[in-house]
Design a protein that fits this description.
Elements (H helix, E strand, L loop, with lengths): L36 E5 L7 H13 L4 E3 L7 E5 L2 H14 L2
Helix pairs in contact: 1-2
Amino acid sequence: AGDIIGLHNHGTIQIGDTFTQGESLKFSGIPNFAPELFRRIRLKDPLKQKQLLKGLVQLSEEGAVQVFRPLQNNDLIVGAVGVLQFDVVVARLKSEYN
């Protein structure tokens, strides 16, 4: 059993970090699955590129999707295991980063 706590994060805590009191614990990490579906993301307003990238980075850290950038251009490609993950990404980006 463990405790769930809330902490103010000033950029030093990341998803998957573990806090312990006493002996150190080691976990194998969050599993990562190879994406089977890919979608290219294009913005109607290029001035929101920074916001979009911030949101996608956070969602990829949470394991919702994986983000890829081709070498030839600045496009953003999102990879997911299932179609539902794309719906979740769109909803989260609209509600949290709009």
